Amino acid sequence: MNHGSLPINYIIDRTRNTNSTKNMKHSIIILASFSLALRCDGTRALLPNPPSSASSPHKKIRQHAHSSYLHSTSPSKGTVHDESSTSHHRRATHALLFSSWTDGIAPNRNVRSFLKYCLLRKMLSDEQSRREFELKSSAEFSPCCGPDIDAMNNLECVDALIRRGQRLLGTFGLASKEEEFEMWSEEVLGYLLKEENHDSLDLRLLYIPTAMYALNPQSSNTPGKQRQRARADGKKRRDQIMSLLDELLNGIIGAQSAKMNVCAITLDLDDGSLKQPVGFRNPAFIPKDDKIALSEWNPHIIYVEGGNTFWLQHCIEKGNYSTLLKEACTGPNGSVYCGKSAGAIVAGKSIETATWKGWDDPSVVPGRESYDRWIGCAGLGFVGDESFFPHYGSEWRDLVKEKTASGTMSDTTTCLHEEEVCCIVAEPRHRFVLGGRCNAEQF
Fold this sequence. Notes:
The chain is of the alpha/beta class and about 450 residues long.
């Protein structure tokens, strides 16, 4: 093809029709490889000026880190599984699935480091998208000058930070890598603060306590008192999460005057109500409804609290939240999904594991009062074909073997002890369990 005869709109349209980040950058570089000249009659012509692959100053920008899957023979703590099988589920971009906040997240240094990584990676992904938009816009609206070099350099800097962070995956729990991880964390926050040109950054937390709001038919308290108590308990738990997030991220920049500001809001999936906003420096930034909270507000972390799994699943189905949650937590810019107990179960392929112990009462859901009404009920599928059985102990081993051998579930069931956390990364695909045990049992 004679590139000199191509109209400028043709190359610009190549960027508009791009579906992936990688291809979008590649299309922009195609545009950068041409120079515009004015003919004597004043019309524009495109002159080919393709740089060689060996000497291209923009070659690094076009490259993305592609890591081959790491393999292990068992779901060992701190190691990565063979995740090469194809699944129709949309995997969570980053996720932490666990039984207990007190035993699994709060005291576990390696888990806290992984959570910090996920949050910083989410911020970098948002910054990457912003820089890509700037670069694309500069190419479209200033074709005579071509893509803005500063925008290109900024994007390359973000890409480099992302690649460095990806190389740290799978090293959590290795003391030799702690210093390298902290250095990377400091660089990321320092870069983001400089680029935002603010004294502080906002970290957005969407807290979903719906599972713990389920009424207990056996309680002597009235429904009103039960709800009041549940909301008060939920606020305390949310405060604990905010405190840890503040410690994780402000600890990185404690020697500087800058600060990470944690803002949070509570979403009840039962009625879609938003309550208890806190940390918002501008009231105009508070999301107006549940749909905005899960989409346009772009939370960095979505925390789904434990409680009655059946009530949580019922509310997800009733409010059509499954699609919204999948869109929010998957893809290049997905929010970090934290699922505790019931929140971990609904993240799996099936929620049938909630019927095994008899802990959760299905009678809270009208029309589905018995356990057999929940057999085969699909979850969010954030980890491919895996389902989750939290609060596991040796006393449940025979039960789990019996249930998995019954044939009602075709997927893999991962059992999580109180102190274990299943850590998920979609790209490059990683899955490992951190905690006090040598292995998370699978059936």
